[in-house]
Automatic annotation (TrEMBL):
Family matches, as PANTHER family: ALKYLATED DNA REPAIR PROTEIN ALKB-RELATED, ALPHA-KETOGLUTARATE-DEPENDENT DIOXYGENASE ALKB
Protein name stated in the entry: Fe2OG dioxygenase domain-containing protein
GO biological process: oxidative RNA demethylation
Keyword Oxidoreductase attached: yes
Domain Fe2OG dioxygenase, residue spans: 234-354
GO MF entries: broad specificity oxidative DNA demethylase activity; ferrous iron binding; oxidative RNA demethylase activity
Family label: Belongs to the alkB family.
Pfam families in the cross-refs: 2OG-FeII_Oxy_2 (PF13532)
Record-listed Fe cation binding positions: H252, D254, H308
Amino acid sequence: MYRSEVTTEESERTAFRKAEKKYKIYYDNTKKKKVTRPVDLSEVIDFKSILDDYNCNIELNDGVSVLNRDFDRPIFCLESRPGIPGALSIEEQRQWIRESLASFPQPPNRTNHNAIYGPIEDLFVSAKERRVLVEVERLPDDVCSEVNALQSDVCAPWYKFVEEHGELRSKDACKSVSASVLLRKLRWSTLGLQFDWSKRSYNISLPHKKIPDALCQLAKRMAAPAMPRGEEFLPEAAIVNYFGSGDMLGGHLDDMEKDWSKPIVSMSLGCKAIFLLGGKSREDTPIAMFLRSGDAVLMAGEARECFHGVPRIFTDAENADISHLETQFTQEDGHAYLDYIRTSRININIRQVF
Ligand code: SIN
């Protein structure tokens, strides 16, 4: 599974799991507060300093090479696994943070909240305006049975956002949840062809919209250096992952797409993270690297078949590395984006499915 790996004693002992445990966040409880336990980060590869060295004509570390193909800045390969530090400009980062929060979770795109609440509209704006989600009705059973075959969660109770002190009657209060809590609990949304997590497959019969054109163009540009010669990348689906403090993404393979000669374009926004890139088996020791806002990883070539995951994000001001975003959200609604991204990370990974 993707989000919640089944753990057995054996899987707890693999080299990948050991690395996850090494880098994940641990808290020590001192008398009054939770303190993050220090972690040895000396072995984490930092492509930002590799890029700085490269720009100053300093020799690259062993195992790092530069792929100079069809892109406007250096693409570094780590033992033939390509990635582009600083691939997105600051303006692009701002744009995709906004879209990831305000547009991507909008129906018919699905999110992790669908299973409980059905499709919910305007999550981000509702969080900003301190609305609460209340149960309003349940679809009649006969309608449910008709649509169940198509979309299992459509018959969840129906919910809508209301003003906190407005329509909320005392009977609703026990069935209400604030939009800001739901925003913090947003874990994923899916664009384009929708992914059915319970079956671990794309369900092409689920209602969906095409991936926005601007995102397709960006993904095509980034995928180009890692595409088989003469072929064009066709973005058909994207998974947007949202990470809050303490969240991690367990080691997994992306194996649901038909043609693994096509890369997955994976972009990072917001707080810095540690990304683990292993081998074809969980027994292979993964390489740890920092990913910062604007970096792109191309899961291509050998890496396309490798285990990977995110054991840690850094949400403290000193390590999050997002000071460049502070000036980017100045309009009236900008604070809501900034508040979110100061303690969060977003990953958009774009795939060709067929
Ligand atoms: C993923 O592998 O699905 C996401 C990786 C990331 O968050 O960088």
